[in-house]
């Protein structure tokens, strides 16, 4: 069985196209969810982000949306076998999802490949490419399910992060918090963690994080962020 064991839960990933990644772990650990009551995970895949957020704030009511049937199997299995089986997984496109109650936090590790060659695996293409969920559609979904003080938190490569931010600004969203991520000290920044809100901000919280030292060990900053999750950290 292909899987990933964390300290408080396990992630089976036999069926989903997109496996557990550093991107997902970074996002689940970095998102600001301390004051939230309701969270929506868009494109949950294995359920990783929903499970990480539930571990961090067990009073959260969490809904997770996933379009791919095979990924839903993994997510529901992982949630059922976790300490938090009350997380609800909805099998549908976020464009078709509706909720009477608004969410305080929306979190997503979104598809971002716009122009690269599509994989022959249709599920992997849907998970990796924006063909099924464009940035504008994701932002529209957030606005639809949020209230005036909600936040949208995502992780993207730098070029796509710039494009996403431009779309967000056009749609009335403001970047409040950003973290520039580099994998090693000698590599350039490759990912950007970002939190958006409808509230105009007077100042932005900017930080930086390096995942690994030159000797391939985890940096103290990454350990501080993620040590509650990794089994051997």
UniProtKB/TrEMBL annotation:
Enzyme Commission no: 2.1.1.223
Domain of life: Bacteria
HAMAP family: tRNA_methyltr_YfiC (MF_01872)
InterPro entries according to UniProt: DNA_methylase_N6_adenine_CS, SAM-dependent_MTases_sf, Small_mtfrase_dom, tRNA_Adenine-N(6)_MTase, tRNA_adenine-N6_MeTrfase
Function: Specifically methylates the adenine in position 37 of tRNA(1)(Val) (anticodon cmo5UAC).
Protein name in the entry: tRNA1(Val) (adenine(37)-N6)-methyltransferase
Annotated localization: Cytoplasm
Species, as recorded: Pseudoalteromonas aurantia
Keywords assigned by UniProt, alphabetized: Cytoplasm, Methyltransferase, S-adenosyl-L-methionine, Transferase, tRNA processing
Main location per the UniProt record: cytoplasm
Every Methyltransferase small domain range: 36-116
Enzymatic reactions: adenosine(37) in tRNA1(Val) + S-adenosyl-L-methionine = N(6)-methyladenosine(37) in tRNA1(Val) + S-adenosyl-L-homocysteine + H(+)
Similarity comment: Belongs to the methyltransferase superfamily. tRNA (adenine-N(6)-)-methyltransferase family.
């Amino acid at each position: 069985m292909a899987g990933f064991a964390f300290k408080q839960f396990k992630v089976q990933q036999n069926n989903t196209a997109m496996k557990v990644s550093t991107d997902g772990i970074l996002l689940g650990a970095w998102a600001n969810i301390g004051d939230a009551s309701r969270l929506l995970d868009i494109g949950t895949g294995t359920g990783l982000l929903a499970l990480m957020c539930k571990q961090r704030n067990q009073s959260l009511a969490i809904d997770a949306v996933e379009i791919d049937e095979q990924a839903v199997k993994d997510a529901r299995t992982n949630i059922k076998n976790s300490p938090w089986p009350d997380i609800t997984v909805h099998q549908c496109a976020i464009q078709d999802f509706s909720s009477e109650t608004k969410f305080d936090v929306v979190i997503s590790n979104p598809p971002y490949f716009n122009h690269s060659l599509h994989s022959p695996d249709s599920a992997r293409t849907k998970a990796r490419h924006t063909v099924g969920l464009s940035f504008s559609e994701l932002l529209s979904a957030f606005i639809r399910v949020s209230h005036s003080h909600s936040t949208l938190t995502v992780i993207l490569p730098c070029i796509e992060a710039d494009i996403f931010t431009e779309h967000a600004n056009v749609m009335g969203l403001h970047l409040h918090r950003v973290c520039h991520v580099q994998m090693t000290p000698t590599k350039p920044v490759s990912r950007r963690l970002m939190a958006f809100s409808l509230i105009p901000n007077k100042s932005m919280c900017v930080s930086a994080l390096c995942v690994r030292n030159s000797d391939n060990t985890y940096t103290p900053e990454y350990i501080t962020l993620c040590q509650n999750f990794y089994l051997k950290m």
